[in-house]
Structure formats: structure tokens, C-alpha cells
Amino acid sequence: MSVSLDIRLKRANKVYHEGERLCGLLVVVSRDPLQHQGVSLSLEGLVNLQLSAKSVGVFEAFYNSVKPIQLVSSTMEVAKPGKVPAGRTEIPFEFPLQAKGNKQLYETYHGVFVNIQYTLRCDIRRSLLAKDLSKSCEFMVHCQPQKAKLQPNPVDFSITPETLQNIRERASLPRFLIRGHLDATCCSITRPLSGELVVENSEVPIKSIELQLVRVETCGCAEGYARDATEIQNIQIAEGDVCHGLSIPIYMVFPRLFTCPTLETTNFKVEFEVNIVIVLHDDHLITENFPLKLLRL
């Protein structure tokens, strides 16, 4: 028997806020009438925490607190046991999106060691001899816009051999001077990160200038915290030995799902940073780091 099951949400972008209702249709397409023991719909929101390979074994007690954190979990019966006629059947549903107890819903985020995910799952239970049907559908939760107003607060930077940290032999470094500014380090997640950069001088020709967005995920418990930084995206903003004194624009859009407003809770933190990376022709790598605070406004 050929049967297909699908969950169709009314909102094309699948973005919801706490307190709203998820409305949509369950679509069952069957060649023959389908006998079932009930149709149920469940909604679940989970935070999955994971330890990086370097931290495994360091925090034994962490495994007790690494269990998924349940933010929302509820189930409703959509149809009582019965029969679905042959052809296409649409079953409408409405599901309130409400956090569990005193918990709050965090924004959907797909990271490496922290994952915040919301799913809607439909199950059609069938008799012992027939296989149950199930279908899952991920939707996104955005937190309510924060009331804070963003004040323009440009951050000026100047990169020279003297300003660099973690350098063993400073004397052997070629001379260079790179100036510029970021328009803000407290950013709205829906607006691009912008600024400009000027290479004033450089003894060694420049190979490439890149903009690297980094996620810093911290997972932990009372015993300690594991903090890991991983790259989200890398954008090349200049190629080759650029003209000295020329203003190079800095422009980066924050990717959906892989970024979220900066988040700090008792068990985990999600923060973001941006690196300006200058690669010289002799393969010296110069990096300037800026912590970012992301907000949804």
C-alpha cells in the first residue's frame, strides 16, 4: 500500500514567536482506504549540548548535565481511530507554542556543540501488521525583538607589528600598518556588519584579506566549562596586493540558523566574534579579533 504523509505549515518562512499558534495541514495521500489507530501531533523544542573531543574526559560530571534541555513538549490527538479514505485527505491543525513551566524559548540555532531545534512530528498509528507512519518538520523560533536601541558606536583599529599578541619573534616581522573601523560591534542580527579598512603600508606584498565570522560556544556545569571557537563563514574582501591608501569596504551578512542573538544561560553560552585576517605573500597570518554582541531588534 502506497501512503504518503506530509506536514504543511501555513507560514512559508516557518518562523514563529512564543505565544503564537502553529497552523497548518496534515496531508495524507493513499491509494486505498487507510485503517489507523489514531493520528497524533507532537511538538518538541530541545537544546542539545555536546563536548568537543579535547574536553571529553576532562569534565566527568559534565555527562550528567549534558542531557538535552527540553524547552517545550506537548502532544495532541488530531484524529481518533478510524479510516482515512482513498485519495488525498487534509486534516487541519492548530498548536499553541508555549514554553514548558518557567522555561523560555531560545531562538533556533544550529551550532557545532550547541543546537537549539524545534520540531513538529505527526504519527499515524496502525495495526500490528502494518508499519506506523511518521513525518517530522522543523520550524524556526525567533525571540521577541529586544527593546534596546542601538547606538552607533564605531570601533577604530590600527594593526602594526607592535599591536600583535602571541608573537615569538617580533623583530623578524615585516613592517606594516593597517587602519580601519567597524561601524559597530553591538549589531542587529538582521543588518550586515559593516566598516572599512585601509592598508597604509606593507613591506611584504599582501596575498589576501578575509573576514571570518566565529561562533564561541561554552558548555558546562559546576565542575567547569568547555569553551570552543569554530568558524561559521569566511569572506574574502580583497585579493592580491591591494593599493595602499585605498578604502576597502567591510560587509558581512549574518547567516540565518547559524547565528542567533548572543545567549547566556546557566548551562551554555553562545557568543560571536569576527576576525579580520590579512595573509601576506610570505604566508605570515595577521589576525585582529573583535567580540560581537548580536541582538534582534
TrEMBL record:
Component of the commander complex that is essential for endosomal recycling of transmembrane cargos; the commander complex is composed of the CCC subcomplex and the retriever subcomplex. Component of the retriever complex, which is a heterotrimeric complex related to retromer cargo-selective complex (CSC) and essential for retromer-independent retrieval and recycling of numerous cargos such as integrin alpha-5/beta-1 (ITGA5:ITGB1). The recruitment of the retriever complex to the endosomal membrane involves CCC and WASH complexes. This is Vacuolar protein sorting-associated protein 26C. Belongs to the VPS26 family. The keyword Metal-binding does not apply. Gene3D superfamilies: 2.60.40.640. Component of the commander complex that is essential for endosomal recycling of transmembrane cargos; the commander complex is composed of the CCC subcomplex and the retriever subcomplex. Component of the heterotrimeric retriever complex consisting of VPS26C, VPS29 and VPS35L; within the complex interacts with VPS35L. Interacts with SNX17 (via C-terminus); the interaction is direct and associates SNX17 with the retriever complex. Interacts with SNX31; the interaction is direct. The keyword Nucleus does not apply. InterPro entries: Arrestin-like_C, Vps26-related. It is found in: Endosome. One of its GO terms (biological process) is intracellular protein transport. Its main location: other. Keywords: Endosome. The lineage of its organism: Eukaryota, Metazoa, Chordata, Craniata, Vertebrata.
